[in-house]
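Figure S7 source data.
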Amino acid sequence: MSHYQHILLAVDYSPHTDYVANKAKSLADTYQAQLSIIHVLDNIPMPDTNYGAVIPLNENSDYDLLEIEKTKLMELGKRFAVDDDNQWLVWGVPKEEICSCATQQQVDLIVVGSHGRHGLALLLGSTANSVLHHAHCDVLAVRLLDN
Ligand code: AMP
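Tokens for the predicted adenosine monophosphate complex:
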């Protein structure tokens, strides 16, 4: 098997984020792969900006919520040694934007957390499940145990 060269970590800032991020970082170190992170804004109303779907981290916005989201991503990136150019803040539907970013950036492994839902939640679909079915590359679903 060829080694992974570019790993994309999808973060939702749940309490499990560091646990999943540590797995992605460890894989990136093991394979000497590039590590990228993505957070998709799906729950904040966007003002009428000129940004499009991808939001540049290095430009100031007058929108407080956006600045908070940028800061959170940059802090996480710093802690896990992710290059500024490999941090993606995108507005849209998480499963779509994660897969689309992976394709555009030639990612060969996406790392997501998975609550291993079942029953109705599984029928409705989780982000991890959707990414697993739509991605064009390998996907690592890190099992999360809720206490
Ligand atoms: P969920 O299926 O919503 O419980 O999320 C499972 C995993 O999908 C999370 O652990 C993240 O890896 C990823 N994810 C969910 N929402 C987002 C988001 N808004 N942006 C980036 N990744 C996300």
